[in-house]
Amino acid sequence: MGSIQQRNLHHLVIVFFLMTSTSLTADGQIKLAGYGSTRCSGRVEVFYKSTWGTVCDDNWDLNDAEVVCRQLNCGTALSAPQLAHFGKGTGEILLDDVDCSGSERYLIECQHRGFSTHNCEHNEDAGVFCSASLPMASISVNPVDEVIWGQDVKISCSISSRPEHLVIETFILEKASSSFSMNQASSANSATFSMPKVNTENEGSYRCRFQAKVSNQAFTSPLSTSVRLSVTVPLQQPSISLTSLNRGLDWGSEGAETTRGYSFVFTCSISSPYPGGVFSLVFSGSSLNYTQPAVNNSASFDFPVAEYEHQGNYSCVYEVTLSSRRFTSEHNAPISVIVKMSLLLLVSSAAAGGLLLLLLVLLVVCLVCKRRQRAKQPGALVQTQMAVRNSKEEDEEDVYMNVNPEDTEEKLKKDEGREEEEESDEDDDYERASPDVNFTKANEVGYSVEEHREEEEETSDDERDYENVTQPFGEQTIDIYGGDEDIYQNL
């Protein structure tokens, strides 16, 4: 029984202690409220005896605000605004004439006139700005869409609200991955940074922040989101033209026609504000490119002698190097070049070709004739020799003698004796010893081969016809055909 009473008493003590401690913890709690307030900035309100009340701004300063910021875990006090900066509160005014040293843990530990004792109105409500309340800055770039090399650029940093009564306020512009930093003091909610004539060295990501100093102590807002600054170099398409110094250029539907051996010149030009640069003449279908430095934004490419390998399409490209970066234009519309042969050269070539062809034909004809002549020459020679021999034999046979009867037998014996001598030499003529006999020779043995050939062509029959005319006693007629003339001898 006694143990039960002891336990109940113990429970009552615990409940009383808990209720007392809860009441102590609740009293003296603070919060920040009002128009535009944040977790670490706003109108100061205190909880006491189950109610929230405001604090009068009499003797309100940074030491009082420092205690509030520490109690709320909001860093260091930046300012202690008065006169209901965050708007008028409602309800009871709980504290007035607050006087803190700045080292207290809670606001109710500071000296004051007592709870609910005051001589203020809500238009004198006190507020605080803590360092943790510094707003994140925002950043913007102008121009927004595209930044061109050499253009003036402005970067703006701003905050939505700013603490009052700050000694120094500074906006800081920083470049990521670089030591670049620009500072600009401002009493407003924004600052603008000017960057004249930007180049590729100004490219990068930029961020900004807001910095405040209180009692020589700097407080910085969180960094803004980054913005990318990209510098572009827009290059126009270069123009291209084609000329010829010796007028060996004609324009047709398929392009420019130039005569082989004549000269032609390409000219590339561009309207560019950038210094220097080079032009490249691109020859399609070939890896060979011609490059010339730009002089007054143009360059010329000379071809002193047009050859067939120069046929093709040509276009210009402009390149410029700015801040160690190279920028290239687009290709322009190409010009097609056709190399043709000159008319005089064409006629000369045709004439030379015709002459050469004629010489070849004549050579072939000569070779054919010579070959035919060689083919016919052995047979003709044989026929000629045979014809000469037959002619000699005929000459021997064609000699007829008319003699007296009493001399016939003697003459025959002499002829038989001479036949053996004449067989050794066919070129000798037969001689008859009788003074009464007249010998007539029909043809000369020494006919040339050509005369004999003409004689064969004129004669329809190779064999010779002979006619012996019956003669009366004492008279004989010899008719020799095939000779130049008929010889008659009458004895």
UniProtKB/TrEMBL annotation:
The keyword Glycosyltransferase does not apply. The chain crosses the membrane at residues 343-368. Pfam families: SRCR (PF00530). PROSITE patterns: IG_LIKE, SRCR_2. GO terms for molecular function: serine-type endopeptidase activity. Disulfide bonds join 56-120, 69-130, 100-110. Residues 1-25 form the signal peptide. This is Deleted in malignant brain tumors 1 protein-like. It comes from Cottoperca gobio. The gene is LOC115011716.
